[in-house]
């Protein structure tokens, strides 16, 4: 039975500004973007270029303004003629290992090691700082940033400040053809207990119960599935954490499983961050931090292993040409 189980809004009616204001007023800042993310970039400045690529301007819960600066980390001596790699974390700010996995990839030496092999790397470790601080999927305006990438090249067509800023960053890199993009995400129990319900209420729909997969999986691009690449990432992550099995109907979160731990979405049609480049090799990771088999450390390691497995595949492909 379909039910509307969220406490904000009128069943069957989309939210207006008053409902969004109520939702925002109930959000609680639970951690610091400045402390956890921005400060972690300072030790990287000798080895990388740390660049500010945007500035968010939102109303805050207390009636003031949110003016988070957005930062990316780029390999030095950027050469647009080299194969270029994008890593994004925290598009959904509540998905913690995406942020900390991206930071660990930078701080642990892996990014420098792969850059030395002839690729450019740019990492946007926390695309949605407000979501990170408030442990929320949406922006402060109740917009899902991972449905807001309506254009790869025109920031004004994007449906969020976060999306527009990231597109502007990519435009500034001068890359015509990206080689690889790894977008780091999580699927959590709160997807079912909170975020699906709030989304249904926001959109004036009924909330339909779903399932949460126990384990790591990937969302590839339905228009560019590259199954061997997805399989290589799954095999790499398998040594760190378990791979999500399919549900009895052969799906993960309602999408058909096309290979072990792999489902496909149409990145462009949905406005997903995974489709923000024209990269040949793209994937969206999904770690499951609420599994009894997982820890925060395992999730962070899984994200790093996903990135390095993707880059190993890219380098092998380059070597064959």
UniProtKB/TrEMBL annotation:
It comes from the Eukaryota. Its cofactor is Zn(2+). InterPro entries: AstE_AspA_cat, Peptidase_M14. Keywords: Hydrolase, Metal-binding, Zinc. Residues 29-321 form the Peptidase M14 domain. Belongs to the peptidase M14 family. This is Peptidase M14 domain-containing protein. It comes from Tetraparma gracilis.
């Amino acid at each position: 039975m379909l039910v509307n189980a969220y406490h904000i809004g009128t069943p069957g009616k989309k939210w207006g500004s008053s409902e969004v204001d109520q939702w925002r007023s109930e959000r609680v800042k639970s951690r610091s973007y400045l402390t956890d993310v921005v400060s972690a970039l300072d030790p990287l400045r000798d080895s990388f270029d740390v660049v500010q690529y945007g500035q968010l301007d939102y109303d805050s819960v207390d009636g003031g303004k949110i003016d988070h600066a957005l930062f990316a980390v780029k390999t030095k001596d950027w050469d647009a003629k080299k194969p270029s790699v994008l890593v994004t974390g925290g598009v959904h700010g509540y998905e913690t290992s995406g942020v900390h996995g991206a930071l660990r990839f930078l701080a642990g030496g892996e990014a420098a090691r792969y850059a030395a092999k002839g690729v450019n790397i740019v990492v946007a470790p926390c695309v949605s700082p407000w979501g990170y601080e408030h442990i929320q999927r949406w922006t402060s305006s109740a917009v899902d940033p991972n449905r807001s990438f309506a254009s790869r090249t025109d920031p004004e067509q994007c449906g969020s400040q976060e999306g527009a800023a990231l597109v502007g960053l990519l435009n500034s890199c001068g890359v015509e053809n990206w080689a690889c993009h790894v977008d780091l995400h999580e699927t959590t129990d709160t997807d079912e207990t909170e975020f699906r319900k709030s989304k249904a209420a926001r959109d004036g729909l009924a909330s339909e119960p779903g399932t949460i997969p126990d384990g790591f999986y990937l969302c590839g691009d339905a228009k560019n599935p590259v199954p061997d690449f997805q399989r290589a990432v799954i095999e790499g992550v398998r040594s760190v954490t378990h791979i999500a099995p399919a549900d009895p109907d052969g799906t993960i979160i309602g999408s058909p499983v096309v290979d072990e731990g792999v489902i496909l979405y149409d990145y462009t049609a949905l406005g997903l961050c995974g489709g923000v480049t024209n990269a040949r090799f793209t994937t969206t990771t999904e770690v499951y931090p609420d599994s009894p088999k997982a820890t925060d450390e395992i999730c962070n390691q899984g994200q790093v292993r996903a990135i390095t497995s993707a880059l190993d595949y890219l380098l092998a492909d380059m070597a064959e040409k």
